[in-house]
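Q: What does the assembly look like in three dimensions?
Context provided by user:
Components: two
Sequences:
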Amino acid sequence: MKNQLTRRDFIKLVGAAGGGLVLAVSLEACAPDAPIPATVTPLSPNSTPRPPFDWAPNIYLKIDGGGILTVYAFRSEMGQGIRTAIAMMIAEELDVDWSSVRIEQVPADSRYGDQLTGGSVSISSNYSALRRAGAAARQMLVEAAADVWDADPAGCTTEAGFVIHPDQQQRIPYGELVEAAAEKEVPAKPQLKDASAYRIVGKSKGHFDAPRMVSGKAIYGIDVRIPGMLFAVIARCPVFGGTFASYDDSAAKAVTGVRQVVELDDSIAVVAENTWAAIQGRNALKITWDEGKNAGLSSEALRKAAKERLPQPGSKSDVIEAVYEIPFEAHATMEPMNCTAHVHDGICEVWAPTQNPQNVQMQVAARTGIPRGDVAVNVPLIGGGFGRRIQADYAVEAALVSQAIEGPVQVVWTRDDDIQHDYYHDLSVHYVSVERGRVSRPRLQSTGSQSLVPTGAWRSVENFPQAYPTQCFIDEMAYEMKRDPLDLRLEIYSDRAAEVTRLAAEKAEWGKSLPAGHGQGLAYHATFGVTHVAYVAEVSVSEDGRVRVQRVVAAVDCGEVINPDNVAAQIEGGIVFGLTATLKAEATLQDGRMQQSNFHDYPVLRIDEMPVVEVHLVKSDERPSGMGEMGVPPIAPAVANAIFAATGKRIRHIPIRPEDLRA
Amino acid sequence: MSSYDLQVNGQAYTVEAEAQMPLLWVLRDLLGLTGTKFSCGAGLCGSCTVLIDGEPTRSCITLVENAAGKNITTIEGLAALAQSGASTTSAVEAQLHPLQEAWLEENVSQCGYCQPGQIMSAAALLEKNPDPSDADIDAAMGDVLCRCGTYQRIRKAIHRAAEAV
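A: Here is the predicted structure of the complete assembly.
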């Protein structure tokens, strides 16, 4: 077979599978349209397995002698529900009862393809492979049962973990069939279910991990505990790109519980017996920073320079044009960055709440000098990712500190560290224009900060700064042309775009009469071009300029829906995430450092500011697209457009503050 | 370092700690009760909320010396959680508090990280006000932050639990 496992891979995978026997599968199984897991070979084909026998026909699942299905989750769970969705797709094709499903998270393992959880593609890029993995296993179980009965496999059916005889009377549970099924040839083209036969996909299954989340039993990265582990908190130069010039650690070392002070490249780690002592020790370091060449940077200057790179409004007479501005934004995940690492015996074990375990593996290997194959990256639950955890900086730190102290350590970031050392959503400026009188999508010209401030993916990435200026500007076009913003959009859009726009407007009673100071605003965006989302926001604006988003009606077309209530939850979450940026928080750079440090000056949306959100799903037979990020982009323009409808004020920057709207 | 007697979830513990050490770190790092979460460290987000003598309290800014001798309830103690080794079970059969059940019914949790603090804050609210209005919920829960945006469901879950009690 191709891609035969190495001994090391095998040991790792068995480790990942909690001791069960796992069989190998060719890598092609991961590609959406590749042939089915074609070549499956038992790693110990001639040995008689001892009970309990775990049958793993491919890298995605195993079934044990008790009929329990264990699904191997290979993408990171950060609240978007991917663990549940992976299990639902496999369980559906396998025809097992949902209560028989277990999920185990696999470590960094390239046989799963790129494990980067980003771009909202975890379902769309694995949809075929997961369904075929389940369907192939089901077919092998059917063949095994048919042998027992000497029946025609084609006449056998399956339901909730049983193969059912053509006579509809006799049935055998999967658990009793796994040994025989393991001897069967993996079918090249297993029969996939028709959507009309679905029992699990398309039904709301909540979050698999929710029972443990609500009882405090869920293990996030910061909850990992290794015998003998210490805790570290790190002092980093507040100016991006700076480093320490000199430091005095005598006071830090005098803090009760502090064990050691470790120098990293540009930062200093205080290692202690508990997190609190490490924080106290870090705070007691006396450091003279070498702030480097960024010490003079400010967002104001970066914004000004960005504006100058774009066409200047007023230079042409035959266009409608406008400039929109978006500041730096932080991720502010509720679980601060952290990572646990243990370098020992030439290997490195990592427990990283990461969206990108293979990147962690690669970077830890590069920085510690430990071969990549000897870096094992385990992925606990993640207390919010939003793109921040695609980076590997927190994991590299943990590995380096562990290597230095020769023992297990958890590096914990305080909230200040988190807000001030983010990979920010870049500041951006946008020039939008269209020929006067022309009905079409406007032209968007954008530029970022082009600075050395670290930037990275932030939930929906480029889609937020595309949707905000474009969708606000289409409103500006409508008012300029004395057209209704809905009518204008329906002239510009067709197909799925038009359908969600029309649906949101209809459900929100677009154009209904509202009290003074209230307004409706509409926006549509297809995030990454694949999931169509339209919002109608209704806002009220008080005399003193305070905006209250009363209600958001959403229409969503994400193709086939796997877990409907979770789609609604992702829309609610995307709206909240986007509202924080639209109305509340920005990260501002002054003297080369971020000025904000915690939730008092980087305020996120609160429950008393939460609008009523209504989500309407378009029924679709299209392949599923993605949902994790799609709720974010249209909310800023929907709200800004509603504010205009309520006040006549067109605010072309976010966050929109009361002072922008005071009468 | 001093010795402190703590009553956590009905169990007595004695810990050696600095007087200035916040209860949060005593729970998490000394007692291994990691259900109570660290997020802001400054009493701004509510993820670390526990009950001290029934009052919702930010454990990240509550010194251990001020918690000693009082009844502390964490998320782990909100209901008797029988199931151990639950990392691979899809159905936790343990007894749950009505709020925890309502949280599951309303599918509140996304990343779930802030939810222990949300639930403990809601438990304190229901203890005082068994049938809270939306305004009561806003007042009691306004400072408990959730970045995933589960607020609408938190509101529904509190109402649901109030009906169940």
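Follow-up: Chain A has 17 helices and 25 strands.
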